[in-house]
Amino acid sequence: MAPKSEALDQVVRAVDAAAVLISSTPEGREIAGRLAVRLGAGLITDATDVAADGSTVQSVFAGNWTVKASVTRGIPVITVKPNAISPEPAPAAGAAEELDGHDLLTPPRAPGSSHRAESCEWAAGARPRRPSSSPGGRGTGGDFSAVEGLADALGGAVGASRAAVDSGWYPYAYQVGQTGKTVSPQLYIAAGISGAIQHRAGMQTSKAIVAVNKDPEAPIFAMADLGIVGDLHTVLPAAIEEIKKRRGVGDLRSVSRGRLMPC
Predict the structure, then answer these.
(1) Cα separations (Å) of 217 from 49, 95, 193, 228?
(2) Cα separation of 152 and 174, whole Å?
(3) Domains and CATH numbers, the chain
(4) pLDDT tens-digit profile of 229-252?
(5) In terms of DSSP bridges, do strands 65-69 and 56-60 run parallel, antiparallel, or are they unpaired?
(6) Which residues have a Cβ under 8 Å from the Cβ of 1 and sit 6 or more positions away?
(7) How much is the pTM?
(8) Following DSSP, what letter does each residue of 158-179 receive, concatenated?
(9) Per-residue model confidence as pLDDT tens digits over 127-149
């Protein structure tokens, strides 16, 4: 993290940046914190919107409140939740500026700092982060095969609710919610998840939310763009079959416009 924050520090000073925007991932937040200290600047994390004047919008207290915040000292360093802001055409095109100098982008190691050089590969069957997410909850009964099958069919990632993790059905690393990961995918399919406030805090900034639950009174339906009242073990296999069928004829776009993700 230290080399990356140092490289960013040099770049920011070289171009006289007006603000620094970094993706709000665990790594991004740490880099942003280090960079803010180096610049003597203010830091705002997990922004869901950034205005032209540098002011931001954040969702706080488990999503119960929305606040506006601005940096009052130095160059604003802001981490933005992935997929929270949709790109929009601007009247003026930006200009790319290339920075010369090998030393600028490869800062020397600080005394006493550790150095590690290695490559990491996904293990067989691992699912990388993708624009869609298919989390499962208590309604799976511990059987995540349909949830995993849907994630694979959509090229997405698998998540789990706290109830599923606490029951030992899925590893904690996949937990979505206030005490787990915060995600903002283009499509979030909540399968068998009731929608407790702690879970909503971790996924409510998703672009499109689909809920599948047998209970028509489940709180998750209140925030869903599309709700399906039914057994996930029946609904998800049918969706997987339809996706595979349309993928075979090269028409996945019609799936996203149909039952799975309304546009």
Answers:
(1) 31, 51, 12, 12
(2) 15
(3) 2-82 (3.40.50.620), 132-256 (3.40.50.1220)
(4) 999 999 999 999 999 888 775 544
(5) antiparallel
(6) 27, 30, 31, 34
(7) 0.61
(8) EEE-HHHHHTTSS-GGGBBSTT
(9) 544 567 788 899 999 999 999 99
